[in-house]
Amino acid sequence: MNTPTRSYFLKMIITTIIWIGSLWGKSVGVSILPSYVTHLVQASNCIKDKHYSLLEVTYHSSDSNEPGTNHFTVFKDINKNSNITSQNTVYYKEKQWKLQSAFSGRTVDVCVFLKEDISVIPVVRQFVDLPNECAVKKGIRQILKDEVVTKIPLLPFGCWKLKHELKDSTGTSVGCVNVIAFQTISSNVDVVKATCH
Description:
This protein has about 200 residues and is of the alpha+beta class. It contains four helices and ten strands; from the N terminus they run H-E-E-E-E-E-E-H-H-E-E-E-E-H. The protein has a single domain, classed as Distorted Sandwich (Ganglioside M2 Activator Protein, Chain: A), CATH 2.70.220.
């Protein structure tokens, strides 16, 4: 079983200290901290050239400013009776990608995940228009941006990979998306972008 490393915990502590500092800065009306950037590096189907029956993604980071270029397609309505489950697998990159078992492996009904998740879905909603609960209507949904600038971090600092898999009641994969994103301060975006892939 992989456990978070000491450097991961150190990053979490630093993020918490910075977050507390940002709250202090707001209370005294002084901006003492930089802006935080959450940047979408990649969004792709888990298996190249495989056609999934429920969900697929198209994303080209170099074309992110072109309307309609980056989107995901839902081929069928997803509702409470669809019997679709969702499973996330999360990795953190130091030199290599390392499985973060504390955040991975749990299988949950996709409608429950969409409505109740407090870690992944709020970040995803910063980039894509998703409803707050089922039903998710079939159609094309645009990936609206590749970067979000905030006063507090949306993720722990560093480079993250999320594999989000959807399965039907028989256990067949009907959608699978890999997402790579990173969290950093605004002055460090280019440095992190060069290593997060």
